Every structure is written in structure tokens, then in C-alpha cells.
Amino acid sequence: MRILFAFLAIFLVSGAVALPARADDQATAPAAPDAPPPVMTKQAHLDQLFSDLKRERNEKAAERIAGNIWSEWFQSGSASIDLMMMWSQKAIEGQKFDVALDFLDQVVTLQPTYAEGWNRRATVHFMMKNYGKSMSDIDHTLQLEPRHFGALSGLAQIMALTGHKQSALEAWQKVLAIYPMMRSAQDQVATLSEELAGEGI
User: Fold this and answer.
1) How do residues 102-120 score in pLDDT, each as one tens digit?
2) In the chain, which ranges are continuous DSSP H helix?
3) Which end of the chain is more exposed for a tag (fewer CB within 10 A), N or C?
4) CB 138 within 8 A of CB 146
């Protein structure tokens, strides 16, 4: 079964150009002319992205928004954590899962509030078929970021692989409540609904 659990982030860089104020605006403006513009917090930016993601009905546009959300999630705020996450990714790509786990154990120990560290470790456990450990890390991820559609997708896959179709369906439905245009989630909801209906559940 193809792993839908890990996603590639799309990094988009945007810049805004400030226009000079008109002379009459400067005369009436109470703020200092060189006051910096208000900066949106990371949480406020994420909230806006999730709001956009929920409303977007174009699949490609929704994918771009989801990519921006992943970009935000990947930012740990620590150079050393970022480095260990990079090393863990290289280890995963080389199928060196034990090495990846060593790095990720350090990540979640040093920065336990970093949701993506838990999610990355959940992904590695999933790839190693350590489903119990993966679910534990998914739980940590969702406590820190309940809207983590990647972690919910992983949970749904584990439920399906272990024969819990109803729980898998419910997890995919949660994904769609957050990210309505995720094609894989749409397909899984349709498939599981049909299977459960056929089983009389």
C-alpha cells in the first residue's frame, strides 16, 4: 500500500512592496512614519491557511495551501532541531530507519512541543510496521496540532491495515473536515463507505 502519510511541502516565497504614504496621510497619521508594519504570528498565519484550505474548492490551489501549511509545520525555530530533522529524512530515504529514529528521539526529547518531530517519528514507526508506537506518536502530534491532516491520514491507514474499517473511515472523514479537497482522503472515504455498507455496518 502506497504510503500517503508523508507529504512533500511546497515552499512558496512571497514578498510585499510597501508603497510610500501620501503627504496628507502623513500629516494625519498618529503613528511614527518609520513604525514597522504589524507582523502576523506563526499561529495566526496557520489559522488563516487552514481557513483558506477549508474553503478552497480547486484541488491544485488546495494543494498549494497544504504545501504552505507543511512549510510552517517544518519550521522548528531551532537550527539544531532542523539539522536533526534533515539528517532523519536522509536516513529515511536510505532505508536506515534505526538511524532516523535515533535522530527523532533526540528531536522529541529536546523540543517536545514540536509537533512535526512527533509526526516524523510516527512516520518512521509506520514504515517499520510498528503500528502501536506510530499511533502513540500520532496521538502526541494531534495533541499539539489537532488539525494535522498528515497525522490523521497515518492514523486512518493504520486503522485500515489492522482491520478497523469504521475507525479508518472516521479518521479519513476528519481529514476531509480539515482538507476537503484531498483526493486520497476522498477516495478512501468512498471505498470504505462502500465496503462497510456491503458488510452491513
Assistant:
1) 999 999 999 999 999 999 9
2) 23-28, 42-55, 59-74, 79-93, 97-110, 115-127, 131-144, 149-161, 165-178, 183-198
3) N
4) no
